[in-house]
Amino acid sequence: MRREQGFLMLEAALLGVFLALMAAMFILPRQAAALRTASTARQTAVHLAQQELVELETSARLSLPRETVRTGWLGPAEDLARHARAYEVRGEIVPDAAGWQLQASVFWEVRGEAASLTLGKWVGAHGKGR
Questions:
Q1: What is the pLDDT of residue 4?
Q2: Of 122, 84, 130, 82, whose CA–CA distance to 103 is shortest?
Q3: Which of these, 92, 102, 45, lies nearest to 71 by C-alpha position?
Q4: Residue 91: which of 54, 125, 64, 66 has the closest Cα?
Q5: CB 102 within 8 A of CB 121
Q6: CA-to-CA distance for 3 and 107, rounded, in angstroms?
Q7: Could you tell me where the beta strands, DSSP code E, fall in 50-98?
Q8: How confident is the model at residue 51 (pLDDT cuts 50, 70, 90)?
Q9: Pick from 105, 86, 91: which is nearest to 41 by CA?
Q10: CA-CA 20 to 30 A from 88: which of 1, 105, 125, 129?
């Protein structure tokens, strides 16, 4: 009789552990979906920042600024508006002795929290200052 009670206790303990593990796993798909959403938002931000750097480089080479220039989104408006969430893009051109330091910053919100990304690039100017 005692042996049967021991097996019942062991079965109950194992069943309890198994049920606890199953309950803990219900959270995983929700966390995976949140991670996927955050990753997609960041990939979009990287793309927008890279596109802004290209626009900033073109602008710097055409206008040859001698003072710091701060801009908003320089790309096509539909590129910024077609995403599921709102992104704000800011650009900056900072001249130096031999070229320009370009910086593109992207700001957005994920799950109620503010997120941002900044990419930079240095562009040399041939014959600058002449």
A1: 67
A2: 122
A3: 92
A4: 54
A5: yes
A6: 65
A7: 69-71, 88-95
A8: very high
A9: 86
A10: 125
